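Much of what follows relies on a compact textual record of a protein's fold. The record below shows the convention in full:
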Amino acid sequence: MSAIECCRTAALGGHVAACTKCSHQHIAYNSCRNRHCPKCQGVASRDWMAARIEDLLPVEYFHAVFTLPAQIADIAFQNKAAVYGLLFKASAETLLTIAADAKHLGARIGLTSVLHTWGSAMTHHPHAHVIVPGGGLSPDGTRWIACRPGFLLPVKVLSRLFRRLFLEGLARLHKAGKLTFFGTLSELADPDIFAAHLAPLRKADWVVYAKPPFGGPEAVLAYLSRYTHRVAVSNHRLISADADTVAFRWKDYRIKRGDRMKVMRLPTSEFIRRFLTHVLPSGFHRIRRAGFLANGIRRDRIEKIRHLIDTKPEPDQTTGEDGRTDADARDPRQTCPKCGGAMIVIETCTRGQTPKSRAPPWEDAV
């Protein structure tokens, strides 16, 4: 919270840039670079996406969403690292296992997972977005096996295996003493009560949603650039804020037709509480890869796959939708907003220091 409060203020230092033509001056304060700050994700998103361009393959891409039931979400909130990590592991293992089954695809696939913990109204709603290329390597690694056009894997089969793998993993975490419980959930520390709590979930339908395939590799980049470094609420959704109330836009997914965008007004303290609900544990990675896209083997596997489908990378692919926000979208070598001249740095400020108004050095020389 302190990082976000200090972001782009004198508390973090900054610099003064002046125009070489008209001497117009602009003060730019430093960013906090915190991964939960709505202002600081544009640059991080662009850098991450630039590294992903060379990983794209000329195949269909599919998007699956694995969502935890509300009863599990409550446990996840008190055990973020353990349960969110299990969500990554169970969803990836589900896709890899079903895809490897000869009855379905019979191939070793790759995937990229992104963790989101919020709904549109900033309530706690942990789920994993998974992007999967439409095919995989044959078991012996000599062929590329493409999926059927427009279809990757059956959702019902994915849902059932995901449910089993996750509940088994959660039970192991409890048995190993890696889960802690507080407040209204404190009684779940008892093994029998915990087992009874999970029993209804073994028969319930778990939400695994498969969206239609993307329009192509460029669409995958556009989507990932919006999702990889997103925070619980972005600045463009904020309408107003004061000491008492914050208003923001949210999407009501219960409305099937018509305008689903609404305005929610919350007491400022409740808005801050909801936002901080989604702060991740220190060092926790919210973007992970598995299969042939796993770190360490990704480059070799992608080169091999391109050889098998006889294509070459297209390094010039770009996307216009890179998730840039506010000042992060500006080129640091920006031009003067008044005359278009070149802006250069004439003064730097350390943390807590306020820049002094002064004439550019070239005017002093004159």
Q: What stands out?
A: Residues 2-34+340-365 form one domain. The longest helix spans residues 80-100. The CA atoms of residues 86 and 169 lie 7 Å apart.
